[in-house]
Specification:
The complex is a heterodimer of chains A (341) and B (177). Chain A is mainly alpha-helical and 341 residues long. Chain A has one domain. Chain A is 65% helix and 1% strand. Chain A has a two-stranded antiparallel sheet with strand order 1-2. In chain A, strand 1 and strand 2 form a beta hairpin. Chain A is globular and about 60 Å long. With 177 residues, chain B is mostly helical. Among the domains of chain B are: 80 residues, NADH-ubiquinone/plastoquinone oxidoreductase chain 6, subunit NuoJ (Four Helix Bundle (Hemerythrin (Met), subunit A), Up-down Bundle); 40 residues. Helix content of chain B is 80%, strand content 0%. Classes of the chains: A mainly alpha (341), B mainly alpha (177). The interface between A and B is medium-sized, with 27 and 21 residues.
Chain lengths: 341, 177
C-alpha cells in the first residue's frame, strides 16, 4: 500500500484523538487553574495530581440516564449536540501543526502536517466555526424551556455580532501575508528582525491580535462573554435540559473550539511552529507550547474577570470592536500599499 | 461511474430534495434547517466544480450568517406550526388574482430557466473554453476581476441590497406612527 496514504490516514486518527485528549486535558486544567486561582487544590485523588479526573467524569456521564423533556422537539434535540461537536472537530482539519515532514525518510516525499489540503484554509476555519452556532441555537429552541431559548437567542446574537470583528482581524493578517493558506502564512513568519525579534505577525498586528483574542472568546462563549450559559441568570442556558453524553458533547465542543481558536491564533500571529533552540522537525513542540500558553490565558481570564452585562457586550461588539477592527484593516492595507508587501 | 459523477448526483439530490422539503412541511424551524442543508449541498457542488472559494463564501455568507439571522427571527417570533385551514381562509396570497399571477410568474420563471440552461449548453462553449483555466478557483483572480472588469455591477448590486435594507426598515417602522 502507498506509504503516503497510510501516513495520511494515520494523521487523521492522530489529530482526532489528540483533539479528544486535549479536551480531557482542558477539563483537568480548568479545574486545576480555577482551584489554584481560588487558593484551593482542585482534583487530587484520581491519579497523579488528579490527572485521571476527566476520565472519571466521562465514565460517570456514560452511565447517566439520557433524559429528554416531554415537550422537546425529538429530532432537533438529538441533532443539536452532534452539530456542535462535529463542527468543532471539522474546523481543525485544515490547521497545520508542524512543518512538512517525511518522517525521517519513511515516506518518498514530504507531506504537510494537516488533515485536509485546501488553498482557502483560513476561510474554511471561519466557515465551519460559523456553523457551530446552529448546535447551540437548536439546542436552545428544541428544549422547549425558556432558559434554554434565551441562551440560544443570546448565542446567535452574540456570534453574529462578534463574527464580523473576528473576520476583520483575520483579513488584516491575510493582507500582510498575501495568501489564504495557513501553511504559507506560517512560513511568512520565519526568521528574525535585527537578529533577535522573531518575525511574528503579532508585532505587526498588535491590535489585530487583541481583536482576534477578544472575538475568539466571544465566539467560544467563554467568560467574561459566557452569556449563552450564564448560570446565575439562565440555570445553564442552552444545555439546561441536556444530560449524560449529549451534555458532555457540548462541553467537548466548547473545549475543542477553544483549542482550534488558539491553534489558529498561533498560526496567524505567533509564528506557528517557528521558534529558537529546537531543530525544525521538533517545531510541533513550539506549536503545542504556544497553544498551551493561549489556552492558559483563556482559563486565567475566566477565573479573573466577572461577566459583562448583556447590553455592554452588544455595545462593545458593535461600537468599539468592529470600528477598531475595520480601521486596523484599512491601516494595514494602506501600510502594505505604501511600504510594499 | 467516476467518483465525481456519483458525488454530483448525491449532492444534487440532496440540494433539490431539501429545497422541496423547505416548502413541503409546516414547521418553520425545520424549513430553515433544510434550507441550510440545501445551501451546504450547493457548496459541495461548487467544490466539485473546482471553485472552493465560491463554496466557502456560500457557507460563510448564506449558511453561516444569513440563516442564523433567519433562525433568530423564527425563534424570536416563536412562530408555531402553520395551520392549513386558517391559512387558506385568511391569507391575502390566497385571493384568486394573486394565485393566478403567481402561477404566471412561475411559468415565466421555468421558461427563463430552460432558456438559460439551453443557451449555456449549446450556444457558448467557445466563451466558456476561452475563460482562463483555474480562474474560478483563484481568489486573487476573482478579486481582480470583481474590482476591475465587474466593478460597476458589483457596486450596483451592493447599492441595491442597501436600498432593499433601508426599504425593509421603512416598511417595518410604518406601524409606529
Amino acid at each position: 500500500m502507498d506509504p503516503v496514504f497510510i501516513a495520511q490516514v494515520a494523521l487523521v486518527l492522530v489529530v482526532f484523538h489528540a483533539l479528544l485528549l486535549s479536551a480531557a486535558g482542558m477539563v483537568w486544567a480548568e479545574r486545576k487553574v480555577a482551584a489554584r486561582l481560588q487558593q484551593r487544590f482542585g482534583p487530587t485523588y484520581t491519579g497523579f495530581a488528579g490527572l485521571l479526573q476527566p476520565f472519571a467524569d466521562v465514565f460517570k456521564l456514560f452511565f447517566k440516564e439520557e433524559l429528554r423533556p416531554a415537550a422537546a422537539d425529538k429530532i432537533l434535540f438529538y441533532i443539536a449536540p452532534i452539530i456542535s461537536a462535529a463542527a468543532a472537530f471539522a474546523a481543525f482539519c485544515v490547521v497545520p501543526f508542524g512543518p512538512p515532514t517525511d518522517f525521517w525518510g519513511l515516506l518518498p516525499h514530504k507531506i504537510p502536517l494537516y488533515v485536509a489540503d485546501v488553498n482557502v484554509a483560513i476561510l474554511i476555519v471561519f466557515a465551519i466555526a460559523s456553523m457551530g452556532v446552529y448546535g447551540i441555537v437548536l439546542a436552545g429552541w428544541s428544549s422547549n424551556s425558556k432558559y434554554s431559548l434565551l441562551g440560544g437567542l443570546r448565542a446567535s446574537a452574540q456570534m453574529i455580532s462578534y463574527e464580523l470583528s473576528y473576520g476583520m482581524s483575520l483579513a488584516a493578517v491575510l493582507v500582510l501575508a498575501n495568501t489564504l493558506s495557513l501553511q504559507e502564512i506560517v512560513n511568512g513568519q520565519s526568521g528574525y528582525w535585527f537578529g533577535f525579534i522573531p518575525r511574528w505577525f503579532v508585532f505587526l498586528q498588535p491590535i489585530g491580535f487583541a481583536v482576534y483574542m477578544i472575538a475568539g472568546i466571544a465566539e467560544t462563549n467563554r467568560a467574561p462573554f459566557d452569556f449563552p450559559e450564564a448560570e446565575q441568570e439562565l440555570v445553564a442556558g442552552y444545555h439546561t435540559e441536556y444530560s449524560s453524553m449529549s451534555f458532555a458533547m457540548f462541553f467537548l465542543a466548547e473545549y475543542v473550539n477553544m483549542v482550534t481558536v488558539s491553534a489558529v491564533a498561533t498560526n496567524l500571529f505567533l509564528g506557528g511552529w517557528h521558534g529558537p533552540f529546537l531543530p525544525a522537525w521538533l517545531g510541533f513542540l513550539w506549536f503545542f507550547l504556544k497553544v498551551a500558553a493561549i489556552l492558559f490565558f483563556y482559563l486565567w481570564l475566566r477565573w479573573t474577570m466577572p461577566r459583562f452585562r448583556y447590553d455592554q457586550l452588544m455595545q462593545f461588539g458593535w461600537k468599539v470592536l468592529l470600528p477598531v477592527a475595520t480601521l486596523n484593516l484599512l491601516a494595514t492595507a494602506a501600510g502594505v500599499l505604501y511600504f510594499g508587501a | 461511474m467516476a467518483l465525481e459523477t456519483i458525488l454530483f448526483y448525491v449532492l444534487g439530490t440532496l440540494a433539490v430534495g431539501s429545497s422541496l422539503l423547505v416548502i413541503g412541511q409546516r414547521n418553520p424551524v425545520y424549513s430553515v434547517m433544510l434550507l441550510i442543508a440545501s445551501f451546504a449541498a450547493l457548496a459541495g457542488i461548487y467544490v466539485l466544480l473546482d471553485a472552493p472559494f465560491t463554496a466557502v463564501t456560500q457557507i460563510i455568507v448564506y449558511a453561516g450568517a444569513i440563516m442564523v439571522l433567519f433562525l433568530f427571527v423564527v425563534m424570536l417570533l416563536n412562530v408555531g406550526q402553520e395551520d392549513a385551514a386558517e391559512y387558506d381562509r385568511s391569507h391575502p396570497f390566497n385571493r384568486p388574482f394573486v394565485r393566478r399571477f403567481g402561477a404566471l410568474l412561475g411559468i415565466v420563471f421555468v421558461a427563463e430557466l430552460a432558456w438559460a440552461v439551453w443557451h449555456v449548453s449549446t450556444r457558448q462553449p467557445a466563451a466558456i473554453a476561452a475563460a482562463a483555466p483555474g480562474s474560478v478557483s483563484s481568489v486573487r483572480e476573482i478579486g481582480r476581476v470583481l474590482f476591475t472588469d465587474y466593478a460597476f455591477p458589483f457596486e450596483a448590486t451592493s447599492l441595491l441590497i442597501l436600498v432593499a435594507l433601508v426599504g425593509a426598515v421603512v416598511l417595518a417602522r410604518q406601524d409606529a406612527e
